[in-house]
Design brief:
The protein has 90 residues and is mostly helical. 79% of the residues lie in helices and 0% in strands.
């Protein structure tokens, strides 16, 4: 049995997908805060502003996570599509 440090792990996420996920979480937080702030500036009760900010945060987070999944899927598809060409040309 190999120690855990010696086992090769597949590269599940590329650097671009990781960066997109990190950027998406920051953008979703900023969007939620902005939505809550704009609601408060329009004299909406705090509870409603918090709900709007939270729902905006959640919607943006889901959208960016779906984008990261689509990006990872596209990268895997491109890598899989490029492999037969390398085998045939060799």
């Amino acid at each position: 049995m190999l120690p855990l440090e010696m086992v090769d792990k597949p590269d599940i996420e590329s650097q671009l997908s990781t960066a997109w996920r990190s950027l998406g979480s920051r953008v979703s937080v900023a969007g939620g805060c902005l939505a809550a702030l704009i609601s408060l500036l329009h004299h909406v009760p705090v509870s409603i502003a918090a709900l709007r900010g939270g729902s905006t945060w959640f919607a943006l987070l889901v959208a960016t996570r779906l984008g990261a999944v689509a990006l990872a899927f596209a990268e895997r598809f491109d890598a899989a599509a490029g492999e037969p060409e390398k085998k045939q040309s060799a």
